[in-house]
Amino acid sequence: MRASAYPLIDADDAASLVLEHTPVLGAENVALADAVGRVLARDLVAGGPLPAFPSSAVDGYAVRTADAGGVLRVLGESAAGRPFEGTVAPGTAARILTGGVVPEGADSVVMVEDVSVSGDQVTVPKGLLAGTNYHQVGDDVMAGVQILRAGVQLGAAEIGIAAATGHAQVPVRKRPRIALMSTGDELVEVGKEARRGQIPDSNRWALLAALREAGADVNVLGIAPDEARALREVVVDSLQHADALVTSGGVSVGTHDLVKPLLESLGSVHVGRVKLKPGKPFTFATLEGGRIAFGLPGFPVSSLVTFEVFVRPALRKMQGFAQLHRPRLAVRLGYDARASADRTEYQRVTLRREGRELIAETTGSQSSSRLLSLAGAHALIKVPAGDQSLKSGTVVEAMILSLP
Ligand code: AMP
Ligand code: MG
């Protein structure tokens, strides 16, 4: 073991440094069929009003309010997509169906339930109000207004409104292309027999899932040995088609830990150690061509927690998300959260509802090798460094992963 040359950086400062050096990717147009989950790159504006014509909300008769209480002659029908082209003159009406254009001259629609019909005559009730039972032009969306803001993620409703306003394609941010690599001579492919001293490369799959969930397009490089030249070759080659590199393992101060010197030789290391538990050896570098690299620690929980704290917000910045961080909610601790003396700790908790409150309970041993502390966790609780524990009953902010 040798002492690390990298300064220990405060966890929040490290997170800011990462975001500062993370670029926003370019935009591309995609068809609506490919738009789900993507992030809008520009504000979307309605080219025209919605609805574009006065549109009946019910089945009934389009009439003039001045004819209320009268017996009217029915001139024709205005069905959805098949408008009645004439004018509703005094003493007349037009049959109208939901979605049909309210004809010229009419200023009200009477529901079919409220009239009596005999041949081509219809009797309408007294006291009709102008503008009832139909949508005026621009009631839903006025022409020229911003309908969706840059930075929103496109879901069903957003894609629906884009389609309704005539956008067959939408401008979205490119998805980050990530080269993902595990390092370590002890790693074997999952499913292959592990000899004594070997362990399955579980981080690859955990990080692949986390990256995909965060919108990345991942190139899985597999396992690189703890050998400087081989490691360098894999990394340099993969970077040709990647916006960022994510590695796990090989960032602590053991003599076989080669990722930091490699990143140092390929660019600038901005974060080499963090006052963070778990995840002290987390490493972040900028490389040439605007690329970035994350050296995540090998311990499974450390790699996923540093992913949450540093990588996920960066991936969201690359994709142009307006909201970079997980939602935060006030929760009441149901346990004493012991602080770490010199490092900010992200403890994993489950949440349960008690009345109007959310109560946080620890997921058990917070060892950085114990993935079960993260499986099923609803939130991360940030426990500031110091000799004070956060006592049971304290209200703290939780970083929400999923709600119970
Ligand atoms: P390192 O950061 O390389 O010193 O690794 C720290 C610990 O994490 C060691 O116990 C490793 O065996 C373990 N580890 C490293 N890489 C992986 C991986 N890909 N999957 C599961 N465990 C790993
Ligand atoms: Mg290692």
Tell me about this structure.
The protein has 404 residues and is an alpha/beta fold. Helices cover 17% and strands 31% of the residues. The protein is built from six helices and 27 strands. The chain has helices at 11-20, 156-164, 202-213, 228-239, 259-266, 300-318, and strands at residues 8-10, 27-31, 44-45, 55-56, 60-63, 71-78, 92-96, 108-111, 116-118, 121-123, 134-135, 146-148, 169-173, 177-183, 187-188, 199-200, 217-224, 244-248, 267-271, 273-277, 283-287, 292-296, 328-333, 344-354, 357-362, 379-383, 395-400. It has a six-stranded mixed sheet with strand order 8-5-7-6-10-9, with no helix packed on it. It has a six-stranded mixed sheet with strand order 17-14-18-22-21-19, with helices on both faces. Bound molecules: adenosine monophosphate (AMP) and magnesium ion.
Write out key terms for the chains shown.
single chain, 404 residues, alpha/beta, six-stranded mixed sheet, 6 helices, binds adenosine monophosphate, binds magnesium ion
Give me the number of helical elements: 6
Would you identify the regions where 5 or more consecutive residues have pLDDT less than 50? none
Strand count, sense and barrel status of the largest sheet are: 6 strands, mixed
* Structural category: alpha/beta
Tell me roughly what share of residues is in helical segments: 10-25%
Ligand types: adenosine monophosphate, magnesium ion
- The number of strands is 27
Strand ordering within the main sheet: 8-5-7-6-10-9
Radius of gyration: 31 Å
Strand-residue fraction? 25-35%
Tertiary shape:
elongated
Mean pLDDT: 97
Query: What is the CA-CA span between the terminal residues?
Result: 43 Å
